[in-house]
Write a structure and sequence with these properties.
- Chains A, B: Belongs to the eukaryotic GSH synthase family.
- Chains A, B: This is Glutathione synthetase.
- Chains A, B: One of its GO terms (cellular component) is cytosol.
- Chains A, B: Keywords: ATP-binding, Glutathione biosynthesis, Ligase, Magnesium, Metal-binding, Nucleotide-binding.
- 2 copies of one chain form a homodimer.
- The first copy, chain A, is built from 18 helices and 21 strands.
- With 532 residues, chain A is of the alpha+beta class.
- In chain A, the strands form 5 sheets. In chain A, strands 3, 5, 6, 17, 18, 19 and 20 form a 7-stranded antiparallel β-sheet that branches.
- Chain A starts with 14 loop residues before the first helix and ends with a strand.
- Chains A and B meet through helix 1, strand 1, strand 2 and helix 9 of A and helix 1, strand 1, strand 2 and helix 9 of B.
Chain lengths: 532, 532
């Protein structure tokens, strides 16, 4: 069986055909909200938008790995719902971080202040999670002893072992990209149908056929509809309002001046478009929460829309803000306390947010940790997606991690990640030893060392804000999961609803370390599934 | 019954509420392709877009007038299909213009060169028409003798006679705005549902209630789907390709570098999305026609997509280009000849394009003209929507028109329109006498004098490219019609399919004369239907 890197792909398009394809792509993006704001108004409120980054061709991805990632999502949902209800385990895992990191501390305190009210009032929690994977070529023994001759920023394997998927991270809070990913995949389906990817047989190299994009090789996703369904189901599960003349509504809590509204709005529109409509209001965090909501005597979260008409009882508080430390000043904390302590179903709770910290991912890699939450078979399948990682603490594994991080020869196979959300602060490869040297040793424990994932060598053409990129690429498959759970007996999570909810697929140039699409590095993409 | 101008509307929103509404509108536009390109690439092909002009509130419109305009559309389809097949009548009406106007002459010659081949090969023609109306307050006798105290640019009537609709013009060629109008109306429905238009009872003036926008007052349109259906039906009516291994496809013939692709692309996507898909390719006029099409020995129009895969037999040539005189240089004429002389169903034919000249509209206002083409009852209903108009020729009516145009007191109630397409060259009111004085009298016959339509005084808030406008507005209702007809016995049009196909509604500031949305004057809107 040929290695995926040996497939000739994408097809060799002339500049003329690429520019034709680009025009098809841009027009599709303009007409389908695959955009990002580039300018937020002057006094007049004028706005402009540009297409968000997308790949010009779907990127190759092994079918079996794709299916594995989708199948495992319900177990990940179950795992993280269980973690979010296990305050004892979480506080243990996060204790160091709560001490040293102001954001973790702030969230923990919000949980402490509200846990009695919130949990008594509302046993249900909604999770919208996204688990991100990369393809990984497991090194064979030859390679482990060979000199490192690969590119300085990405390791590629020439091994012919089957590819694996490795989890990069899991997001349990304010997951973005579901809408953009869905739209980009619809776009690649359209491009394939029109069919702009077809190449005449005469222009193909006879002995080295190009892999054709076929209808069967492009999977579909219904991420937007799935997220809308999960929110609507939670809205229904909330039940009737405490006073029958009042109506219930979902509150989508958003950041002010977000340039990425195209990822949020379609979810809101999807709720309003249901029959009957599920009312969904937007509130900016934290100001609108402080000025347009109140808690009723019995604990309901009430929202007053700015038009002064009516008062709504919030069924689900859908958090699309509150993921940055900077958002949690005094007002931010007060707003979170109001939401968290209310009767509304939180999407998700503060504890579920804390479960997204890298420190938890690292703790789960310890023997027995996953097995605390999942039955053996599920635990084994989840564990198979973990990349080796080490907390840089003083445990036995931690000391082994410190050895690897300080050794320049070993550090080049690793990435150092802070136990914080948001990305953008990772330290890569050869930079790790010096970074640690310049930091007081007591702060090392706030970092996790992960073995670098070694993606296969693949190529594509990307249409980014900075122009067209042709060359080696690295992709990330993000699988969405939605789950509604109930605090059960002995504080265990009892799943009410648990679904794989679609996926987003992002691709970046191989020499860029960050995947952020909003910042202009990553591009939304679609896997072109191949058997290999 | 209260006059429409006496209804308090739109509701008195504070600046804060207007800015909230603006943000709802802009985000909706960004996510639904209600946009216009503002910048067409540098070398990198980067593009930017901005929201197209829309009204912030639906504009009031009498329900009975709205229904009348929709009901009459099938008769207008029938009328213009009949005209497009009556070469004798058309050549008679247009003879002066063909002599004096290079564009009319070019089109006429194309028809002459191709009529034998084209008509023999393909008896079917597809029409996508749009008939534009304004509300008109018929003057009562008092007013006819009163001093003109209205605004210098728009006359408003204080008459309490029922409002009428008057046809501004009918477009039979390359009709735009169907997609934008559809999207804007979907937007107003969404805004009404969320419900951002609601105002608390306490803020309403007790003795002067604001007209509420209600679900029942906002009509829906399915213009995009209707246009797609008509094209798909014509594609089917074309029948199988002349050689069974070939496939048929629709060719959408477009202008290069069009900034208004959001109005075109959804029709193309709608065709591809049908089950089975109706292939629709885009060809830029005229270059792609000359380089990517050929005529088969038996007269089929064959198209070669730029990817070099396949060769398609064109079922329908859908013209979204070729409406400007400037497009008809030598290459443009050759491209039109190829299309017109082929077996493809033309949407529409050159004769149907000639039927859109203002001169035809004026000729129809002559006694007996409509009655030549329609049975008495239909003719009467169509005629009821005509505004008085005069060709400035030497006929009896023409001489009466010249009198009105030269008299400054009478000219102020009129508009002078060239018998050309494209708009933008109209001469209004007091400017007319001097304009005619400066022109050789033999050129007067290229103009038509129309009595100004006197719209009712209505208000709205418009969100244009130039900022927010609050104040008096004038609206235009464009009713779309689709029809497929066959050249019948004795050259009469025999209707195969005839439908009212939705509408677009546009509104502009009352002191602006042009309605063009692309140029930034007009705004897409939705009628808020009222009984009055």
């Amino acid at each position: 069986m040929a290695s995926i890197s040996q497939i000739a792909y994408p097809p060799p398009f002339s500049d003329h055909r690429l520019s034709e394809l680009q025009s098809e792509i841009q027009d599709w993006q303009l007409t389908h909200g695959s955009l990002i704001k580039v300018f937020i108004g002057d006094d007049d409120g004028t706005i402009l938008a540009r297409p968000i980054g997308v790949s010009m061709f779907p990127t190759l991805f092994p079918k079996s790995n794709f299916e594995q990632a989708l199948q495992i999502q319900e177990s990940y949902n179950e795992l993280y719902a269980a973690i979010a209800e296990d305050e004892v385990w979480l506080s243990n895992v996060l204790s160091d971080l709560i001490e040293s990191d102001p954001f973790a501390r702030a969230l923990w305190k919000i949980h402490q202040r509200t846990k009695r009210e919130g949990a008594c009032l509302q046993p249900l929690t909604l999770g919208i999670f996204r688990s991100d994977y990369m393809l990984h070529c497991p090194p064979d023994s030859r390679e482990l002893h060979a000199d490192d001759t690969t590119s300085p920023s990405v390791e590629h394997s020439s091994s012919s072992s089957p590819l694996e998927i490795k989890q990069v991270e899991i997001n349990t809070f304010s997951c973005a990209g579901g809408t953009h990913g869905n739209i980009a995949t619809n776009m690649h389906h359209h491009l394939n149908r029109i069919p702009v990817y077809q190449t005449p047989a005469s222009s193909q190299h006879p002995s080295y056929p190009t892999h054709p994009v076929t209808l069967s090789s492009l999977p579909s996703t219904n991420t937007i509809a799935s997220l809308v369904s999960s929110l609507a189901a939670a809205h229904t599960a909330y039940g009737p309002p405490e006073i029958s003349v009042r109506s219930t509504a979902i509150l989508m809590i958003v950041q002010p001046n977000n340039i990425n509204i195209c990822d949020e709005r379609p979810i809101e529109y999807g709720l309003w478009s249901r029959d009957p409509p599920v009312p969904c209001y937007r509130a900016k965090f934290p100001l609108d929460i402080l000025t347009h909501t109140e808690i009723s005597p019995s604990g309901a979260l009430l929202y007053y829309p700015p038009n002064g008409v009516g008062k709504f009882e919030i069924s689900v508080a859908y958090m699309r803000a509150g993921y940055d430390a900077e958002e949690h000043d005094i007002r931010g904390i007060e707003a979170r306390v109001m939401i968290e302590g209310s009767h509304a179903i939180k999407c998700p709770s503060v504890l579920a947010q804390l479960a997204t910290f890298k420190k938890v991912q690292q703790a789960l890699s310890m023997p027995g940790a996953v097995e605390r939450f999942l039955p053996p078979l599920k635990a084994e399948r989840v564990r198979a997606t973990f990349a080796p990682m080490y907390a840089l603490d003083e445990s036995e594994l931690g000391l082994r991690g410190r050895e690897l991080a300080k050794n320049p020869d070993m550090a080049v196979h690793h990435v150092l990640k802070p136990s914080l959300e948001g990305g953008g602060h990772n330290i890569y490869r050869a930079d790790i030893p010096r970074f640690l040297e310049e930091m007081p040793e007591e702060e090392w424990r706030n970092y996790v060392l992960m073995e670098m994932i070694r993606p296969p060598k693949l190529s594509n053409v990307l249409l980014t804000a900075g122009g067209t990129y042709k060359g080696g690429v690295v992709s990330e498959l993000g699988v969405f999961g939605t789950c509604l759970w109930k605090k059960g007996k002995e504080g265990r999570a009892q799943m009410v609803d648990n679904k794989m909810a679609g996926w987003s697929f992002k691709t970046k140039a191989e020499d860029v370390d960050e995947m952020s699409v909003v910042k202009g590095y990553g591009c939304f993409d679609t896997p072109c599934l191949v058997d290999c």
